[in-house]
Design brief:
Order of helices and strands: HEE
Number of strands: 2
Shape: globular
Helix content: 10-25%
Strand content: 15-25%
Strand order of the largest sheet: 1-2
Number of helices: 1
Length: about 45
């Protein structure tokens, strides 16, 4: 699996048009991203 750095994620979200939704799938559930994203890096595998 590729690692997505925060700076790259920020660039992607900034370029997405207002009427689009940004989502990610974590192998169990699809999550929708908003303009505020919190990431827990302490739970790394």
């Amino acid at each position: 699996m590729a690692i997505l750095e925060i700076s790259v994620l920020k660039e992607i979200i900034e370029k997405v048009p207002e009427d689009f939704d940004v989502e990610f799938y974590d192998r169990n559930t699809t999550h929708q991203l908003s303009d505020k994203v919190e990431i827990d890096v302490s739970g790394r595998n």
